[in-house]
User: Fold this.
Amino acid sequence: MFNVLACQNIKENFTTSAKESLGLYELKQHKPWCDEECIGFLDQRKQTKMQWLQDSNQSNVNNLNNVRHEASRHFRNKKKGNLKAKIDEPGTYSKIKNVRDLYKGIIDFMKGYQPRTNRVKYEKGDLVTYCHSILARWRNHIS
Assistant:
């Protein structure tokens, strides 16, 4: 039976061999909006929740609600700022006459989030999505 370590080992072997033979295509990384201030809000919210769990009196409930409200407001403002910067980015490409990056930005913005799925077909055409079955299929294919 395969375990998680074997899955990771096989994945590393595939990526290194693909990188050596074909060259590895680096995926475009999104810009994280969460900074040190956000992590501080998360820690404060966690500590306040732990205080509430230890002693659930009314003052701790009010304190927890206030901290949650402040953290949510901060996260919402950060996300809005990040989205505004993403929207304004193609405009800057337009101003400097960088047409390729302008259209790439527009297409990325219109596509939105597209999740990756791990699917493999059996010889008969059935789809396999379970990790262990995918590894078994690759093992049979390679051998």
